[in-house]
Structures are given as C-alpha cells and as structure tokens.
Give the backbone structure.
Amino acid sequence: MSTAITKIENVAKKSKDYALANPKTILYAAAAVTVAAVGYKVYKKVFPAAPKRPELIEDSNLAKSTLTDVQAQNIAEKLFTAMATVGTDEKAIFSALSGLNANDFLKVYNAFGMRQYSLFWGNVGDPITSDKHHLITWLANELSVSDAKKLEQKIPGLKLT
Ligand SMILES: [Ca+2]
C-alpha cells in the first residue's frame, strides 16, 4: 500500500518537476490541444455530418412494387448518371421514374443508398467538402421547385418539397 502511494507521489512530483522545468513545453502542449479542439469545432461547423438516411415505409394504399432488385438498381444508376455532374438531366430523371408509384420509388431509394454529393456544386463532390446523401436529397437539390412538384404529382406519396 505505502509503496503504491509513494509511487503515485513520485509520479506526481515528477510531473510537477517536469512542468516547472519545461514551462514552455507544457504551454505549447496546452496550446496545441486548444487549437485542435477549436479546429475540430470549426471543421464540424463548416462540414456538418450528413443527416442519416430516413427509412421510407411502404404505402399500403398503393400497389405493391413489382420492380425486381435489378430493375430498382438500374433505375438508381440512371438517376445517378442524370444528376452526378454539374447540371441536371431532368428528362432522364423523369424518364427513369415514369410509371412508378411510391412503393417502387422506395425500392429505388433503397438501391440508391447514400452517395457522395456536393449540395453546392450538384455533382459527386469529394469526401472532404461534401457528404453522402440519399436519393431524396439528391433529387430535391437537382430539380427546380416546379419540377420537383411535377415529380411529386407523378409519384403519389413522394415528398421532395
Ligand atoms: Ca447535378
């Protein structure tokens, strides 16, 4: 017992001696920790974490989806291609989603998952200045408000605006 206490006292004394002997080092270390903490806060403010992908629920008032997983994946890729560069291929978006109901859309949404996207540039962005976003965020950001409303009318139950 007494040995352990002595050891702790020794460590404490050594730390104190070190601090007294190296005040600048301690100061630099404290400054570095502060800079890191502030830097992290600023970083999180500039690049906030992307919201999680909300889980869409099947609408029992609509027909069940008849899309296969492969079809849903294909539509997701078409949408990605229509939106992934700067600018938007609205025609391709409407064409890819034509004839779908919200339950079909749900499958496409799940197939799309979360993809790297710059809300500012409207392209795939990069992992430092952009985050991964789900299909509804992509569509809402790519389409004008009037086009988004048109799409909502074509796919009952879809909410983009
Ligand atoms: Ca785009």
